[in-house]
Amino acid sequence: MARRNQIPDFTSCINLIRGLIRIDRLDKASKVLEIMVMSGGVPDTITYNMMVGAFCKRGKISSAIDLLDEMSLSGCAPDVITYNTILRTMFDDGKFEQAIGFWKDQLRKGCPPYVITYSILIEQVCNHCGTERAMEVLEDMAIEGCNPDIVTYNSLVNFSCKQGKYDDAALVIYNILSHGMEPNAVTYNTLLHSLSSRGYWDEVDEILAIMNETSHPPTLITYNILINGLCKYGLLDRAINFYDQMVSQNCLPDIITYNTLLGALCKMGMLNEALQLFHLLCGSSCSPCLITYNTLIDGFTKKGCMETAKGLYGQMMENGITPDDITYRSVIWGFCQADLVEEAVEILREIGKRGHKIRISAYRLVIHRLCKTKKVDRAIEVLDLMISSRWKPDESVVSAIVRSVADAGLAEEAYKLSQKLIEWEVLKEGTVLC
Fold first, then answer.
1. Average pLDDT over every residue of 210-224
2. Do the beta carbons of residue 160 and residue 190 sit within 8 Å?
């Protein structure tokens, strides 16, 4: 068409370019793009970005930059994705100073100072060249009219904290203050999350004191961060103090707050306190969720308090919360440990009726307990439940169950199980298991 001086259909050109890029025929895609532009067509940003991405993937950064320059000339301005793609490739290739120079050049050419691109650049400089160099780049970019905002600074604080470099985080905060800005809730929460995860409680108290003197007092997120950190370190008294402080300041706890505290209370065996907190939760604006019930049920079953666990299980069902694999396994394990195997069998029946699935380990545990008490017929019923469920065990899995029963010194029971499985054609005739 081009040789015959016919103007190609531009939509077809775009489809052709994209298709050639997908099959890695970049040279031909470039040729079609050139013909389209020379014929007066203006490719869209997506097509250009696909080309830029393809060049970067091949390591042809100079070609990607040339194409970026051509975009503006063709009437299709580069966007944030175009710049981000090139910058990330430069950093991946270790060309840090080239990336800094590239962004400066683009700003001088009139590129909008995209905050996302700028934040990526600063974060990558910080990652590869250190915080001090990142601060220098911040100053250089400000001269070019690309002024940092609190989002950019927060990304640096976050990076420094993840590395455990609190001196660098302090340097970033100093820069925030020296530019006439102030840290916001995100800045403080980032610091608190890092400090509490490392157990630096004195520093946590200092940050909290500063927050209380600013226009950014502790929020729900702040308290959740602190309570989570304290619970992980077993400092439950302090965590509960923060909970009381929240309530007294009309900062309503959410389900994350409750679940975190309930998990810690159950882990430490403080089940009465866990139930009291659970009742507070039920009387609040929050509603218990699946995680809440699973946490409590697991805690009570491990202590052998099966009546309470059963009550919680029934309550969650009444509230329309569907049990999951974790719920079922906790309840079945608890019943088996308390020698209430019949109750465990009923749960397995319920699972089958509901069309739910549970791991084979639950069936195996119940079968073991039944065989141990010489209730082989009931064990065979459980095997039938397992085989008729949506979970279809193969011969090797079933064989393993029967073998484990035999290894427990229950050879006669294992033989009866294997005979029944042969009858059901789950095991082959003549299979020797015990």
1. 92
2. no
